[in-house]
C-alpha cells in the first residue's frame, strides 16, 4: 500500500488500466470489429505487449480519424462462442486468464466520453413504421415520438420532458417513429388512438400479435369509414381485408375486460372521448383477423399469451 495521501502509480507497469489485447510481451496482430456488426471484418493493428486501455483506444481513434479516443468503448470476445461478450470492459484492472486468450476486440464509437457514462444508461431503440421494414425520414428535421411496446400493444408514449431512468424492463421494446403531419393538427372532435392486431383463439379469448400503430379518427367517422382508411394505410387487398373485424377493447384495474364488435354505422370516436394518450393505454381499436405468419396451433395454446374477456360480446350499430 502506498503512504497515505500518495496516489497509486499509473506507470505502464501498473496493471490497473491494462487491456489484455495480448497475453505475453511479444507484439501480435489484434483484429478490431464494430460491435454493431460483429461478423463483419474490420481492421487489424499490431499491438505490443500489455497496452493500457487508453493506449488501445488512442490507436483505434488514430486509425479511424477521430480526435477524441475517450468516445471509444471496447468489448472482449467470448472465447467459447467467438462473439462479443454481453458487457463491455468495465473494470480495466481485471486480467483475463490465459485460457481465454483471444486476439479480437470489438469497439463502439459513442457520442459521449466514457468518463461521463457511469450515470447514463444504454437503451436499444427500434426505428419503425406501421407497414414498412425499412424507414427513411421525410426530411432531416422530422419530428419523432418515443413509445413502449409490450405484448404487441403500445403501452406508453414518452413526452419530450419525461425522464427515461425508469426504463429497465427487458420485456418492453422501445420504439421511435416519425409523426405524420395529419397527427399534428387535430380538431376538437378528432382523436389519436392505439390500434392492435388480435386473433381470436377461442370464444372469449384472443391473442395479440403483429405491429401496433397510431391512428387518427374524426368525430363524425363511422366504423365503415375507419375501416376504409385503415385498409389504405396498411395497403391490404380488399378481398383479404373484408374478412377483418373491427372491435373496441378496454381493460383496467378492477374493471372487466370488455370487447365490443363495431357495426358499420357505429361512431368510433364515442368510445375514445376525452382520453389523454400520455396517461391512458388501456383501450384500443382492434383488428381481428387470422395470423397467417404465425398461426396459433392447438399445441401452442398452453404457452400462448391469451387475453380473456366477457363472453357477452356486444354488437354496436
Low-pLDDT parts are 5-17, 94-100
Mean pLDDT value: 78
Walk across the major sheet and give the strand order: 15-11-10-14-12-13-16
Structural class based on helices, strands and sheet pairing? mainly beta
Query: What general outline do the C-alpha atoms trace?
Result: elongated
Task: Give the total of beta strands.
Answer: 16
Topology order in helix (H) and strand (E) letters: EEHEEEEEEEEEHHEEEEE
Quaternary state reads single chain
Helix content: under 10%
Provide the gyration radius in Å. 27 Å
Provide a count of the helices. 3
**Main sheet overview:** 7 strands, mixed
Distance between the termini: 83 Å
- Strand % is 25-35%
Summary of the model, kept short:
This protein has 317 residues and is mainly β.
Secondary structure elements and pairings:
Elements (H helix, E strand, L loop, with lengths): L27 E7 L8 E5 L5 H12 L7 E7 L4 E2 L19 E6 L15 E3 L16 E7 L2 E6 L14 E6 L12 E12 L2 E13 L5 H12 L3 H4 L3 E8 L2 E8 L20 E6 L17 E3 L5 E3 L1
Give a verbal description of the structure.
The protein is mostly beta strands. It has three helices and 16 strands. It has helices at residues 53-64, 223-234, 238-241; strands at 28-34, 43-47, 72-78, 83-84, 104-109, 125-127, 144-150, 153-158, 173-178, 191-202, 205-217, 245-252, 255-262, 283-288, 306-308, 314-316. The strands form three sheets. The protein has a seven-stranded mixed beta sheet with strand order 15-11-10-14-12-13-16, with helices on one face. Strand 12 and strand 13 (255-262) form a beta hairpin. The radius of gyration is 27 Å and the shape is elongated. It starts with 27 loop residues before the first strand and ends with a strand. Residues 5-17 and 94-100 have low confidence and may be disordered.
